[in-house]
Input
Amino acid sequence: MLLRGTKIVRIPDGYSYAFRFLSMFSSPSLQSSSDQTMEGTAFHISSLINKPNWEHDKTIKSLASHMSPRLAGKIIGLHSSNVELGVRFFKWVCRQSAYCYDLDGRIQLLNVLVSCNLFGVAQKAVVLLIKECDESENGIVKLMDAFDEMTEMGFRLSYPCYSTLLMRLAKSNMGFVAFLVYRRMVNEGFVLGGIDYRTVVNALCKEGFVQAAEMFCCRVLRLGFGLDTHVCSSLVLGNCRNDDLREAFRVFEKMSKEENCRPNSVTFSILIHGLCEAGRLEEAFQLKQEMVEKGCQPSTRTYTVLVKAMCDIGMIDKAMNMLDEMITKACVPNVHTYTILIDRLCREGKTEEANGVFRKMLKDGLCPGVVTFNALINGYCKEGRVISAFELLSVMEKGNCKPNIRTFNELMEGLCRVGKSYKALFLLRRVVDNGLLPDRVAYNILVDGFCKENQLNMAFNIFNWMNSVGLEPDGFTFTALIDGLCKLGRLEQANGLLGSMVKKGIFLDEVTFTALIDGHCKVGKAKDVYFLFENMLKNRCLTTAHAFNCFLDVLGKDYKLNEANAMLGKMMKYGLVPSVVTHTILIDGHCRAGETTLSLKMLEQMKQAGCSPNVYSYTIIINALCNNGRVEEAEAILFSMSSFGVSPNNFTYAVLVKAHVKAGRLDRALQIVSTMVKNGCQLNNHIYSTILSGFVLLNNATGAGAINSSGDLESRSLSSEENDYNCFSSHVFRLMDVHHALRIRDEIKKCGVPTEDLYNFLVVGLCREGRITEAYQLTQDIVKHGLFPDKAISSIIEHYCKTCKYDNCLEFMKLVLDNKFVPSFASYCWVIHGLRNEGRVQEAQRLVSDFLRHTGIEDKVAVTPYIEFLMKEEEYDPDECLKLIKAIEQVNYKERPII
Output
């Protein structure tokens, strides 16, 4: 017996009754009629496959789409004398029939062949199935279980079957099972060749069974076989897998002294990989040099190992240089080499460079696999570039590279990232249409997406659907829901979910508790927070200061500084070291309470304790000093930050600029802006808003009271968002005129800063106040001068759409397009939705075509369905959702239409 396992088949509720119900109505006459129909179909298809090029016949393709294994077996039986045709048909029908597409269906077809004593076809079919089986352990074990059951019908695996099986097991890192198969071959009287012995040694070594491999080698030597490079390289591999590089080099040195066991490029690559895994990159490169000196040229595998090692430690530039060296040395990179580089570039946010590598890969004639496509799709989705991701999906499908569930998970996460969770939900339809079953990750992405959009009802619907399709929610699912509930203040429900997690035996981690603590802190339930801390200690998941920081932040903002200090003591009692975030929160609390001098002492204490303050620590102090009128002192601290290894950011400068403007020192504020730019800081909307306020105050005395009353120049909490349009003062935009905009533009130009961001700021603010004429005038001028303020353009288009002035909108879009700029996808969506709602469908359709043309999408036919899908207005349709879930349930139970 190869491997024997107990198989449990779960029949969905209600199905057993259905089977009994159907059996009541079955009769011999119905069965006979069915058999006669099958016989007729079998003879018809049998006659068709005798013709040349029968695989391309449309009739047989339509008949094969739902061909059962039993019918396929009958057709092969009618050609029992022609084994080659039988095998050819077996291979073809496995790719065409919905019943034989997966491994279970193919095993069923193989069982039919064996039961019909078609052993000749079955033997070759077994070889095909082993070769095409995926590398996962489950697939190969399932196949071996099936072979065991077939022995009871008198079927025996041939030598080619066993030999192919050994190779597959070695490839799947199943060394112990490979050894058992070898034992069975010997017991059944097969005479093994050298390749089989080498395969077993390799399989054992891949799994780290080096001693077992050495003992096996001794047995092989007694049989008269000698050691060779392949066997010794496997031993080197085994030692590397066991992190025993010393023993690996000992074998390597012995190989160098033996004539028949000289190391080859594979041996060197294995050792180089072992050194890279141990973090010894310098030695790995030295070994590569030694390899060249000994006349052994580095292979694609050698270079790929080094490329991956450099990517793993973030040295992407050196990895790219290694790629160039490969090409110079006429060593052709493979798909794996390019995929490693693409993945790393995408992780670092360099998707354009990753796209360049991808195009180079295509130019070299390589066909990207699903892993390559997934890496690039993930990169685009993380940047919010969903259109590019879907364009890549269309390229993938056109190139016959079938997307897997991870592909769609990446796309769904990308849609959720840009606030399109409903579209992500309906993308599940595409998943089902591709014959895939949504996994737990897919549902978790949707739950998290809807929670972040505060669509809790929809999130709970998906949570319940998971149970209906047999997927148990995990810790991530519950934590996303708990976090969403806490953010909306629904703490009772959040606590209820926590109880459900405990009942289900799901581990409560630090993220879950921190979400709950944050929620309770925001509503002032301190007693519950202490209880949660006790539970964290009980569950041994209080490993970082993050949960404490949430509590300290709330206490500081409520001016409960004594309680905050007590909490700090408790935190240290539990063995947690206060982080720079912890100290910064406490400094902020004292600054809010007006204890700026004490905050300065705490800053010095941080330095003495070896916890260096960060830019936020300094910014909070500078902000407090400015609010107390100690601007000169604040300025001195800002300019001394660099001596402590901390560079001020744009928010630090914004605080000081605002203080000078408030004091009427606009010239000094502009000097600080100039210094800021020279030090490499980008201007943000806080800076623009402050300077604009300064100009309005200077030139419009009547507006001073209004501006001050608006709080524009008053102390405000520091935002972490650079493009925070909430910092706009509506009073300033009401009082300003184009003259002010031109003045601020001239000052920004003196600093050597591009003006696109400034125009974005000005136009968005004017649009919000309904001053579309001035906004249009500013945008028109800058576009004609070759600049492209994207947010300004989007803001004007959005304003026209909200006021239903679509003719003005189309005229403006024409102006932008005539100047070689393309509005954003969101802008196109607003206009297209508006035109469709007004019944101007043809104009809307023309805009879709224009978008495809102007954005340079190459395969417009393939991408258009996805563009239409993304442009479609979002609306919740319960009936459509119900249909979707039913479709997923059918796939889950593997229901197929019956002909």
Summary: Residues 1-33, 702-728, 894-899 have pLDDT under 50 and may be disordered. The radius of gyration is 35 Å. The chain has 51 helices and no strands.
